[in-house]
Amino acid sequence: MSMVAEQRELRDDSLNGLQLSTRMDSIWRTPSGFSGALMSVDHKVVGRRYIVTAFAFLLLGGILAVLMRVQLAKPESTFLSADKYNQIFTMHGSTMMFLFAVPVMEAFAVYLVPLMVGTRNIAFPRLNAFSYWMFLFGGCFLWLSFALNVGPDVGWFAYVPLSSLQYTPTKRPDVWAQMITFTEVAALAVSVEIVVTVFKQRAPGMTLDRIPLFVWAMLVTSFLVMFAMPSIMVASTSLILDRLVNTRFYDSSSGGHPLLWQHLFWFFGHPEVYIIFIPGTGMVSAILATFARRPVVGYPVVILSLIATGFLSFGLWVHHMFVTGLPQLGAGLFTASSMLIAVPSGLQIFCWLATLWDGRPVYRTPLLFVIGFILIFVMGGLSGVMVASVPIDTQVHDTYFVVAHFHYVLIGGAVFPLIGAVYYWFPKISGRMLSERLGRWNFWLAFVGFNVAFFPMHILGLIGMPRRVYTYTADMDWAHLNLLSSGGALIFALSFALLLVNVIQSLRSGTLAGDNPWDASTLEWATSSPPPPQNFDRIPVVKHRDPLWFDTESMPVVAGLSVERREVLLTSLAEAEPQVREASPEPSIWPLLTAIATTVFFIGSIFTPWAVLWGTPPMAVALIGWFWPAGHKEDEE
Amino acid sequence: MTDTERHTKLLYWAGVALGPLAWGINLQGIYTLAHFSCESTRFSGAIMSAVLAGIALAGTAISARAVRRGAGAEWSDAHGGGPRTFMAWLGVGSGVLFALVIADQLAASLLISPCLR
After folding, report:
1. Does B24 touch chain A (CB under 8 A)?
2. What is the full DSSP assignment across A121-133?
3. How many CB atoms lie within 10 A of CB A598?
């Protein structure tokens, strides 16, 4: 046997302890320096970047929200012009939905799912790196356009005919539409990675009914993304085509139809709400189990709820279109679905309450945010059942009642669990604890600020204040509630400033976390904080739904994986039985270069159709470079 | 694996598959039938909903049968480790839940005239 062949035989069962850790670290570590950073395919590095970038966009979107509330705090304010206000509310909605809410949930999944299922890297790690660069470039494209006064001003839904060339002859809608393409490409890529990681890279023994609830939530979310996002990509691309080469998909004078836009948009737009909410429920389940000191009550019921919510979310989109004159029978069907989706959500709420009831809850900051989530989300759900009814929706459509409703659902349903998740997983990601004292201040400011900001909007809507108005006259009697709402918004903004202070302070001088500071049960806590590049020296074997609570002494592991190249273990879909050792890609600059080429293609194509022609060769070159066998160990059989 | 074993395994998934499928067909089907319902048989949508609710419940029944045959030996709640029985339980719940949604839509099709625009 040659020396090379002998080397390839070296497996992790030949090494132990520090020797094994050092060896694995050297194989999986991202190369140092600036170029190394650009080449990284480590899911933790990419996940951290995703999280930080998404929170940067949250900060920007939040600043816009504060600007809007300052403008609306008093009647006939001249703080913002009508044009700037239109751009700002469009940028706020687009940033929060496309650059914060969806990406941040996927970001947490990119970081956590491989750790929670006990593998060493996400599936398709180079695609993962590519998706991050696409997200970053798409977000920067939108915000640079805004800085250059070309920010979109047609709402986050860009309804036609307003967004058609005839009514908006600037590049603003094109910027919006192409930003969608960027972010959806990124989201689709991550979804594919999550699905494959969960289905094929779970640790041996992690059968379908031992998968952590957060991972289940991300699996369902990924399927939602894969089925919903193509609809908005078709819509945004056809809008660009309408505007650039007169395809007339939405021009009723030429056989097109503006309602087609609404159908395509909301076929994506309503599942989008659940794409944001379902990961939040996964976070809630993870946090609740840890701080209630018992597994979540009704594990199969929670998963049934997640799956049912995922399916039903595709049958609700018409409730956004009740005032467009659709057949009443159709509206009735969508009312039925919209009300019935409250059933699986309600089942989950009861499971969580039962978990708290039956557990021994420890009220740390993450659990406070979960309790805040339950209270706020239930209120949002109740107003959701109201607007699911055609007669009520017809009355309150396009009023501030709807603004209040969806902020209760989205902030309550996603942002509160997310901030709870930041407090919960920050020790794992950074190795340091966040301050509990600042955390409690953070929670109460957020909870009080949020309710003061958004509850009055219900009343404003009911007394007739329409959405998307940049000002109002003093005789409308809306001033006091608007002032109250603006005050609440400032308190809410302050809570995020406090979170930022807490994070910075903790990174500088926070208490060291240790491997499992919360005594949690899932696999991400079985490794060090922050985790090493290889995640686990040896892949764990799972024998229980809560492995760290069950295997208290030492966790069984798999041995026999290579210590000569990056390797992951593929397992069967249902039973997670080991099937094959698979090479995992090494760092590469090509995902970044492909993203740059794609960015040039995308941005060029809103200016000239020729960009499709001259933009394709660089992408082809980049992709060839990406997949070209380079003689690395990953290419060996 | 024999054909019988393979067949038995597939049946575990019946409720998970049939419930959402029946509901999807119901949602689109009543729309498709609306014009016909208005002009001739008003109850065509309701009949279709009733049949599809039955299909969703049939999924529940098949999954329940699989649970009865395979449960206990394979699955204990806290430990996990019995994915097929687990999915069969999901099938039981899924069939019932989607039958409920279809029944709600059936009520809508009984209450609202398909001719109403």
Report:
1. yes
2. S-SSHHHHHHHHH
3. 23
Among A192-206, A322-336, B84-98, the range with the most confident prediction by mean pLDDT is: A192-206
Chain A residues closer than 8 Å to B86 by CB: 207-209, 300
Determine which of B5, B12, B60, B112 to mutate to test the interface with A (most A C-beta atoms within 10 Å): B112
CA dihedral A493, A497, A500, A502 (to 10 degrees): -120
Instruction: Report the C-alpha gap between A607 and A602 in whole angstroms.
Output: 9
Integer Cα distance of A307 and A301 in angstroms = 10
Distance (Å) of CA A565 to CA A19, A622, A632: 16, 25, 9
Q: What is the pLDDT of residue B10?
A: 58
Max Cα distance, chain A (Å): 91
pTM value is 0.93
Largest separation between any pair of C-alpha atoms in chain B: 57
Q: Show the tokens assigned to B98.
A: 């989607």
Question: A439, A602, A563: which is closest to A26 by C-alpha?
Answer: A563
Going from the C-alpha of B85 to that of each of A77, A200, A259, A315, B70, the distances in angstroms are 63, 20, 45, 28, 6
pLDDT digits (tens, 9 = 90+) for A18-48: 888 999 999 999 999 999 999 999 999 999 9
CB A605 within 8 A of CB A630: no
Give the Cα separation of A519 and B88 in Å (integer). 32
How many Å apart are CA B97 and CA A340, to the nearest integer?
9
Helices A416-430 and A258-292 sit at what angle, rounded to 10 degrees? 60
Put simply, the chain B residues between 45 and 104 with a CB less than 8 A from any chain A CB are 45, 75, 77-84, 86-87, 89-90, 93-94, 97-98, 100-101, 104
Structure confidence by residue, pLDDT tens digits, A222-241: 999 999 999 999 999 999 99
Q: What residues of chain B lie within 8 A of the CB of A336, using their CB? A: 101, 104-105, 107-108
CA-to-CA distance for A125 and A130, rounded, in angstroms? 9
